[in-house]
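Read as amino acids, tokens; as here:

___
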Amino acid sequence: MNEQSKVAVVTGAGSGIGRAVALALQADGYSVALAGRRAAELEKTAAVAKPDGGRMLPVPTDVTKPETVKALFRAAQEAFGRLDLLFNNAGIGAPGIPMEDLSYEQWSSVVAVNLTGAFLCAQEAIKIMKSQDPRGGRIINNGSISAHAPPPNSAPYTSTKHAITGLTNRSRSIAASTILAAVKSISATLPRK
């Protein structure tokens, strides 16, 4: 691996915003692990990558399943050696029907993908980012204007996108506590006057 190259994991990379972000990162020199449920769509994303950009690694992943999320991050680390960026983008919606008509399964599916999936991916990314040298990286949780201006009949989607704001704040809190621990560790090794 080129020491100067950066590494990203993009979820929902088989279409839409995820595909566009993965391709933009790859064109900018990032090696990108492409995550999504549909292997054929991930392959299509990889096939349109710039020949002079970073490497692409399609990894079929269901972000609602901890074991496939762990396998995604293991594959990215084995292929590229580190992780600099996670773009949490995988998401689904529910039918645009009144909340009282939603089934438990419809609600649970949206929460599992949009919120729990982002949590599971952030958790694995943080483990790598804290253990690599140099330490650190960035986590971007793709939200939605729906969190601030919800359309009618969008309770599951809007709720999860609003919660992503909390997850983003949690990521900031984790980063701040990690930095504080590093500063304390360095301070402890400095000579006292």
Q: What stands out?
A: The radius of gyration is 18 Å. The chain is about 50% helix and 10% strand. The longest strand covers residues 31-36. The mean pLDDT is 83.
